[in-house]
Design brief:
Length: about 375
């Protein structure tokens, strides 16, 4: 149990230590990152409640940018104030950035990306178990009645049928808000949404390379991008391959692959691209550009989350976004499971991990490391 009173310095050091460790060990994408954060800050350290954690998930889904990074920033802000907001986010991003810079250096020098299939082979089944545990715990708070349960199931099914995740997120939130507040209905003239996704940076096509344009391009992407790594791929290709002509399709695919196989945020793909284009200065500027909007959005939105929860209308909207977020998370987990549980060994890794998580409460970080070792051993004996 965390002591009731701790000094600001102690809280800040805790934030730095936790998110540095997660930055090194958080494989598997945003759903896995969020599951690991829940294990650490809700179950083990009790920094925030399950409901508060759910509300932070909903809030991160309402703003553009990388969800797991924004969760790290939100939690750090809640725990350690403004210094925590900055250092928590930086500590979560930096380990992945350094790893990606090293891999980019090897790519430039040797012309190919290192093989990491053995790593993902062992880690992915463990990640499935971690996400399932988080879904189970969060679902007990998010499902507040038949309405939210139905919305969650519908979002899950429609996502698997190919419906856009952002449309499902907002539709789920609006459905719960309207139906929960039908008795309070009076009249609504219009609903206005800021069309962030239509913001366009005024840069002309096929321009000579420059560091300022590199930074502004990634700043724009970080400020308007909703959705998964596949959406990131579409943005990067439109800007860097087609419009600016700075990358080839093969280089872009390699950059996305590096972002997927390294721990921490998938958006460190920007680090790899920046290094390819301009060495270390390019890597640092691209990383700063794509992540900077997340810090700003969290700083602006965090203080309004309690007000959202206290309003009957906006609280219901948040409930709807929360359950829609979990429906999307469950659908992604289903897809990952089908791609990851390939043979008896991977199924066994997932089942053993689930037992260790649910029954013995083993720290998810150790399970991820164990999965990596299992993948390495499997590759060595084949």
């Amino acid at each position: 149990m965390v002591p009731a009173k701790q000094s600001p310095r102690r809280r800040l050091l805790e934030v730095v230590a936790l998110f540095t460790r997660l930055g090194v060990t958080a494989f598997g994408g945003p759903a896995a990152h969020i599951a690991m954060m829940r294990d650490e800050v809700v179950k083990r350290r009790q920094w925030i409640t399950e409901q508060h954690f759910l509300d932070l998930i909903g809030a991160t889904n309402l703003i553009p940018g990388p969800n797991s990074t924004e969760m790290a920033i939100h939690i750090s802000f809640v725990r350690a104030g403004w210094a925590g907001l900055v250092l928590g986010g930086v500590c979560f991003i930096t380990p992945a950035m350094l790893i990606v810079i090293a891999l980019a250096w090897a790519y430039v020098r040797f012309g190919s990306t290192p093989q990491a299939g053995w790593l993902l082979y062992g880690v992915k089944p463990v990640v499935i178990a971690i996400i399932v545990q988080a879904l189970w715990g969060l679902g007990q708070k998010a499902v507040k009645g038949p309405l939210t349960a139905v919305v969650g199931v519908v979002v899950f099914a429609l996502y698997l049928l190919g419906v856009n995740e952002i449309a499902l997120l907002f539709a789920g939130g609006l459905a719960v808000m309207l139906l929960e507040n039908i008795r309070r209905w009076r009249s609504i003239a219009a609903v206005w949404l800021l069309p962030l996704g239509k913001l366009v940076l005024p840069v002309t096509a096929i321009v000579p390379f420059s560091l300022p344009v590199l930074f502004l391009t990634f700043l724009k992407i970080g400020a308007v991008l909703y959705g998964s790594g596949y959406v990131l791929l579409a943005f990067l290709r439109a800007d860097l391959v087609i419009r600016l002509g700075w990358l080839t399709d093969q280089q872009l695919i390699d950059a996305i692959a590096i972002g997927q196989v390294t721990p921490g945020p998938v958006f460190t793909t920007a680090t790899f691209i920046g290094y390819l284009l301009a060495g270390l200065p390019g890597a640092l500027l691209a990383t700063l550009g794509i992540f900077l909007p997340s810090f700003i959005f969290v700083a602006l939105s965090n203080r309004f989350i309690p007000r959202l929860r206290s309003s009957p209308w906006l609280g219901a909207l948040l409930d709807g976004v929360n359950i829609a977020s979990l429906g999307l998370m469950a659908a992604v987990t289903w897809q990952l499971g089908r791609a990851s549980l390939l043979d008896p060994l991977t199924v066994a890794l997932a089942l053993v991990s689930a037992v260790l998580l649910f029954r013995f409460k083993v720290n998810s970080t150790w399970l991820v490391l164990g999965g990596a070792i299992a993948g390495w051993v499997s590759a060595a004996i084949r």
